[in-house]
Structures are given as structure tokens and as C-alpha cells.
Write a structure and sequence with these properties.
rod-shaped; mainly alpha; 0% strand; 6 helices
Length: 142
């Protein structure tokens, strides 16, 4: 913004100077001073613009060529989390084998059919599938 502003001012003052020279006239001291001041400001604006441009180019290069390095720790931690989760899941799944053994022991001890009774329960009268109760019912005791 400052670069365009001072470029325009300096060009305008230079154009004015050329017109005056064509007419064999000198520029007023105030105008010469104004031109010098604006040339100095234009030089500062050019330097600032160049520095900003270089800084922007450095940032663009850093982001486009090396931004993967910023995501690297996140990727590593994600993989570590997945490994830990898989280890925990494996530990839980390994215990299921023992649970199956316990269930098989209970099935033998309690004479539980391995295929289950749901189909019988659905299709038969309760009296035909009743296996008895371990609990004493107070109404029957009396």
C-alpha cells in the first residue's frame, strides 16, 4: 500500500519536473524538498516491501516443503495409541477363552443343552419344558 502511494507521488513529482524543464523553468525549493522526501519514503517502502516479500516466500517454502514435520508427532502418537489399544483388546480377548472353559464346565454341571432351549420355549407349553425350581415357593409350602 505504501509502495504504491509513494511510487505514484514520486512519479507525479518527476512528471512535474520534466514539464518545468521543458519550459526552461526550475522547480520551487519546496517542491524539490517534497520530491526528495518522497524518494526517501519510496526507498523505505521498497525495502519494507522486499523484506515482507522475502519473509512471505520463506514462510511459503517452509509450509509447502516441510509442513509434514509438524504433523509427524501427531502421527506417531496416533500410532502409539492404536498399538496400546490393540494390546489391551488382545488381553481382553485372551481372557474370553478362559470364560468359554468356565461356561462349558457350568453347562456340564447344570446339564444345559449346548444348542439352547429358545426354540422349545417358543413352541411348547411351559408345563412341557419346566425343569423344576430350586426355590421353595411359599404358596406350595402351605
Amino acid at each position: 500500500n505504501g509502495l504504491n502511494h509513494y511510487t505514484s507521488k514520486v512519479n507525479s513529482l518527476r512528471h512535474e519536473l520534466v514539464k518545468l524543464k521543458e519550459k526552461n523553468r526550475a522547480m520551487k525549493p519546496k517542491q524539490i524538498d517534497k520530491l526528495d522526501r518522497n524518494k526517501a519514503k519510496l526507498t523505505e517502502a521498497c525495502e519494507s516491501h522486499d523484506e515482507s516479500g522475502e519473509s512471505l516466500l520463506m514462510l511459503m517454502e517452509e509450509v509447502t516443503l516441510r509442513s509434514w514435520r509438524d504433523a509427524f508427532p501427531l502421527l506417531k502418537k496416533s500410532i502409539m495409541f492404536e498399538c496400546d489399544f490393540a494390546t489391551m483388546t488382545h488381553a481382553h480377548m485372551a481372557k474370553l477363552g478362559k470364560s468359554l472353559e468356565v461356561l462349558d464346565t457350568i453347562a456340564v454341571k447344570e446339564s444345559i443343552a449346548t444348542k439352547g432351549r429358545l426354540e422349545k420355549v417358543r413352541s411348547k407349553d411351559p408345563e412341557n419344558i419346566y425343569t423344576g425350581s430350586r426355590f421353595k415357593l411359599s404358596a406350595r409350602e402351605e
